[in-house]
Sequence to fold (141 residues):
Amino acid sequence: MFSKQESRKLREEFWIAFGKSFPNKWTLYKTEVKGLSFKFHFDLKKAIVSIDIDSDFDQQIKVWDKLIALKSILLDEFLPEGIFEDFYILENQKEISRIYVELNNVSIHNKNTWRETMEFLNNNMLQIEKFYEEYKDVIDS
Fold:
């Protein structure tokens, strides 16, 4: 069991190590599409790379519909393990739409899983960004 301070320190160490191992300039929140962002998440049980749509209802539906239209391309060419959830509830009970891939049985508290997790995060975010670069005109239209 880790104290909050120890847990915070491990999280900080992981993200610093990730940044040093994979020094990319990620798109993340700079998609230029209102409410569309790309995210990394790593906790005590899993790691997730996601495309999140968090906007007003009309914009969320508009962007989600465009991503659904591209679903087969996204799954066939970029994220074969992608999971599509039009209603995804965050821990804070906020409802968003999310496309994500996850790696289970890893923990930010277990340094033995860090390398596998870093590679998972890097590879999948690269795929999301490639998809976005290729289809951003369709998504943003």
In short: The longest strand covers residues 95-104.
